[in-house]
Specification:
Length: 275
Amino acid sequence: MVDFDMRTSVLFLVFMLSLGICHADLNQNSGLLCSDADNSTSESSFRVNLDNLLGLLTEKGPSSNGFFKTTAGRRSGKIYGLIQCRGDVSAENCANCTREAFAVALRDCSKSKNVQVWFTWCSLHYSNEHFFGVWGQESAAIFNKTDSDNASIVSRGFDFMSEVATTAPKRPLMFHTAVLDAGKFGKRYGMAQCSRDISRTDCSRCLDTQLMTFRSSIENKRGWEVYGSSCSMWYHDYQFYSNISITANDGDRRLSLNGVAIGVTMAVMLFLFEP
């Protein structure tokens, strides 16, 4: 688990994961952010509102093209919630991922009122503070540090993902996939998606910022994933998307703190996994 003060805008964290790359699209727990412990979360009204929020997001998210935001409760007890599923997953898997994300949030951030959870197929965010429409600048990059790509394809791969990032904000759902044919080096598959509560301009800024922030870490890798509060990107040398036949909760990428804190312009996390 990662404890993170959501009010902090300047933080750098490095994490190590013991996980190899699997050529399958598994719905894995990719990370979470929890605000400081707040004892008022034990109050019955907060729990009732959170349960109601879960019900609404689980019901409405899958039937709303994988995106839904709503509130539960009133006045000072109001909770804002948002679920976004990856654009290629089925409605059933979207619902399963939503329930799984809530289960992780309640288990690992039980005393937090501001929580974000990322799975491969969905992301969950709920808070007692209004965040709809605000570009959240927290991001995490996941990659295998030993899985470097052929030098001749590195620049092409990064330029390819830059184009994916440019195209995604223009799509109706701010979701885009593409394939790069690298000839004898095979194909590279890319995907980018923004949270549909932000503007297309902020979507573009979000994706561009992720690429520039993590460029030195991911540019020469055969595969990487970046998860953010408002946008996410995926890049692999196998087709990982449009795979809607796998049930949710097939994997768990548990995170353990093993790093340092350094000031940068946006909240950043690097997740490294070993083969």
